[in-house]
Amino acid sequence: MTTVATTSAVRRPSPRIAVLRAEARLYLREFGTLFWVLGFPPLLLVILGSIPSFRRVDDGLGVRLIDLYVPVLVMVGQIVVGLQAMPPIITGYRERGILRRMSVTPVRPSALLSAQMGLHGATGLLSALICLTIGRLAFHVQLPRQLAGYLLALLLTAAAALALGALVSARAKTARLATAFGMAVFFPSLFSAGLWLPVQSMPHTLRQIVVLLPFGAASRALDQAAAGQWPAWSHLGVLAGWTVVVSMTAARWFRWE
Questions:
Q1: Where does the chain cross the membrane (predicted)?
Q2: How many Å apart are CA 29 and CA 66, to the nearest integer?
Q3: Among 66, 108, 211, 255, which has the minimal tally of Cβ within 10 Å of its Cβ?
Q4: Is residue 1 part of a domain?
Q5: Domain of 84?
């Protein structure tokens, strides 16, 4: 009897793994969230790629617009994850007292946060893979020629988006406020990423300002890696700097209840 009980205890998953499994089951039921992350960027890519002018070489830019928009829509998935999907969930847990109750159990609230960031980060990267696949198969967009640099820039982009989402979660007291705060940052982030106007075609002064923002820098870094160059360290440094500063600020302001 003792041996069986001991073996059962040894095989029991750690609290962190148990939380990850539980959160994964709940996350997969969020069909609305999954659509916006996994469905919206690829759908927008298909719509843009269906416009004939986007499939022709632009005289001013020297490339097709669809080639520029694939990296942009790769970023859109990360932005949606960080600013629209994650903050209402975490803030909702705090609003309902779930984080407070977890703080007095062996399961630490940090396990919940890491599970949420891991799940949302993985979903954002899956969205990026779908966009790259559709771009290649449907519109003959070249896959990134500097794969290592592209992957590094993408991981830093995802980290920056999650850091911004953590900051929104730290400041918002309710899920509704989290949605509102996230929306306030969401549209400027899309603009700086080049959704309405590619960063490459922005006026010089505006472009110099945009590349100092996380998703403007990400746009240039991903574009350079896609073309076969190693991303400029200045762009990678902007991404890393924003991630570190925003993460530290979010950690300082975050409250469990």
A1: 26-48, 68-90, 111-135, 147-170, 177-197, 232-254
A2: 33
A3: 255
A4: no
A5: 13-253
For the chain, residues with pLDDT lower than 70 are 1-13, 107
Tens digits of residue pLDDT in 190-229: 999 998 888 888 898 999 999 999 999 999 999 999 989 9
Are 141 and 227 in contact, with CB atoms under 8 Å apart?
A: no
Residue 7 within any structural domain of the chain: no
The verdict on residue 5 lying in a domain is no
Burial 25-60 (b: 16+ CB within 10 A, else e): eebeeeeebbebbbebbbebbeebbeeeebeeebee
Task: Please check whether residue 155 is in contact with residue 122, taking contact to mean a CB–CB distance below 8 angstroms.
Answer: no
Instruction: Tally the domains of the chain.
Output: 1
